From TrEMBL:
It comes from the Bacteria. GO terms for molecular function: acyltransferase activity. InterPro entries: Acyl_CoA_acyltransferase, BioF2-like_GNAT_dom, PG_Glycine_Bridge_Synth. Signal peptide: none annotated. This is GNAT family N-acetyltransferase. Residues 152-251 form the BioF2-like acetyltransferase domain.
Amino acid sequence: MARMTAPALPLPQSPEYARACAALGHPCRAGKGPLPNGNPLHWQVQVRQLPLLGQVSLLSRGPVTERQDDALDWLQSWRPPGPLLLNAEALPPAALRGAGFWPLVTPMTLALLPLGPEAKMRAALAPKWRNHLNRAEGSGLEVRRLPLQGDHWLLAAEAAQARARRYRNLPPRLLAAFAAANPGAAWIWEARRHGAALAAIAVLRHGHMASWTTGVTTPEGRAAQAMTLLLWEAMRWLSTRGHDRLDLGMLNSDDAPGITRFKLGTGAQAHRLGGTWLRARALAPLARRLPEGLAT
């Protein structure tokens, strides 16, 4: 299938995500069009009422532009009503300080996996990952692809796993809303043996990107390398549907080194974001004078 030509929109910047938020009663604001220099730009924000801050605009992984300078110029000039909370792409801290942003959270790193022809993807796998895949393919697992529904066991299992391991993920109600608002854009890959579920993953499609949001395996599934097989099958299917990039989520080598190795073993590339920043009228003058060492 031919590659899609629409701009690469991360999940929080996608119209699919906006439809899910609207279904939950949290509509987004979005805009796009050429900049004065003719270059394209896309932005999407969620607007929330927060204690002490009032109306806050959340801009996550945007604006989407072809040039970093265009994003910075737009951030300098755009003034929403109330404070702006920015989960930045890879923008220079000094430039964000100059635009009046105050640093809140240090940058995290994502794993972004290029998709393409099957042979090319298989060649890009780390040797150990490829060996695990070969073993899983010969283990007799039954793999099924299912439309994501809110009552699938994966969503409750993921929520329980997140509580037990103390990490945050997209809530099940958002995944269910995404699926309902975007038919055909939310899928589950499930591995079974003798009728028993061993593992499952959920993937959301948005433009020519997709995001792996959820994954749970049992001890039996771990022994059979079920997650390896499920992710590989998702990669193959997404590529045939024209997707060219799969967001595998955050890399955390300190708290989850095994998951980090698993993600990078797919051939994914580490993509460092720009951290979380706040621009508010009272803080902007201080942010511009903040020592460089406190804003990286």
